[in-house]
Write a structure and sequence with these properties.
The chain has 334 residues and is an alpha+beta fold. The chain has 15 helices and 7 strands. Helix 7 packs parallel to helix 12 and helix 9 runs antiparallel to helix 10. One of its GO terms (molecular function) is peptidoglycan lytic transglycosylase activity.
């Protein structure tokens, strides 16, 4: 009986503490919102857009919860890859390509971005458009702007979104997507829409949800503009036969360092790369070493410069190797 009372008391304490913190956050959010409206006006956003966009904006605690539990940073690499680069994804990719071959071919030729890469990104981002997200984008971005972790980044994205509304490029009723504020088949952030989105089907508006032509061309334009090298390698999975100094190993996606020639990596004990030109340069990544349970036996990869371009799309080592893995799977099947 005592244990039961103690357990109930603890649960009650936790319940009221959590709810108090959420209520306090909402109060602070409302103060932040007043200030943000002034900032938006100073940045040239019209009063009408500010009113329409922010009249019913609200603090979303679940957005903060999602932000703190992103699988890109906590799932082990092998698990992360297996959930996304698998036979089911490959089967769907082949079907999507068969049904839309002409547009994939046209986009690949024009933008010099492989259709297999576009299929991999489409699969991983939204399961080929099946999961576009139902979150209120404005409230999501406002919540993340208010939050301290990446306030500067998300405030910039929210301001860009309001500018896009001002220019009639996007409308409020279409602004539903991921918890992080991304929209459409390829999950474009507002800055990506501003910089890379294209009205490829010449309908008079950019439609990243309903128009496959716009979505594919916009994604290809993005990849092309950030420096993707057509028909070049992305990565090579390797086995470490002996210990390699940690100073050569990348565990963070912020900046890939220590590019060495393949010949140099062979000398350091990486033996399953005989088919790669000795003069090529690559960097070594072991994503799982970023977490305590990771080890030198965790999945390791030699990555080339194209891999860094994928990180500009999503700055996660696990995301990058998964995209490259699924891309290669599709290449080998079509």
């Amino acid at each position: 009986m005592y244990k039961m009372r103690y357990f109930i008391a603890v649960l009650t304490f936790v319940f009221f503490t959590v709810n108090f913190n959420i209520c306090f956050a909402k109060e602070e959010f409302n103060s932040w919102l007043i200030n943000f409206k002034s900032v938006a006006k100073e940045k040239g956003i019209s009063d009408n857009t500010i009113k329409i966009a922010l009249s019913d904006v609200r603090y979303l605690q679940k957005v903060i919860d999602y932000d703190r539990k992103q699988p890109e940073f906590f799932e082990k690499t092998a698990v992360y890859i297996s959930k996304r680069a698998n036979k089911a994804a490959l089967k769907k990719a082949k079907k999507k390509l068969r049904n839309n071959y002409k547009i994939f071919e046209k986009v690949e030729k024009e933008f010099q971005v492989e259709k297999e890469l576009l299929l991999a990104l489409w699969s991983i981002e939204t399961n080929f458009g099946k999961y576009l997200g139902k979150m209120d984008i404005i409230s999501s971005l406002a919540t993340l702007s208010f939050d301290k972790r990446r306030s500067k980044f998300f405030t910039k994205e929210l301001l860009i979104l309001l500018k896009l509304m001002d220019k009639k490029i996007v409308s409020k009723e279409t602004l539903y997507g991921s918890w992080a504020g991304a929209i459409g088949n390829f999950q474009f952030m507002p800055s990506s829409i501003e910089n890379y989105a294209i009205d490829y089907d010449k309908s008079g508006k950019i439609e990243l949800k309903q128009s496959l032509h716009d979505a594919l061309a916009s994604a290809a334009n993005y990849i092309n503009k950030i420096g993707w090298k057509y028909k070049s390698s992305c990565f090579h999975k390797v086995e470490l036969t002996k210990s390699i100094s940690k100073k050569y190993i990348n565990v963070s996606a912020k900046k890939i360092k220590n590019y060495l020639t393949i010949k140099s990596w062979k000398k350091k004990g990486i033996v399953d790369i005989q088919q790669i030109n000795d003069k090529y340069k690559a960097a070594l990544i072991i994503p799982d070493l970023a977490v305590s349970e990771g080890s030198m036996n965790s999945p390791a990869f030699l990555v080339f410069k194209n891999y860094e371009k994928i990180l500009k799309w999503n700055r996660s080592l696990r995301f990058g190797v998964t995209v490259c893995t699924l891309t290669n799977m599709i290449v080998n099947e079509i």
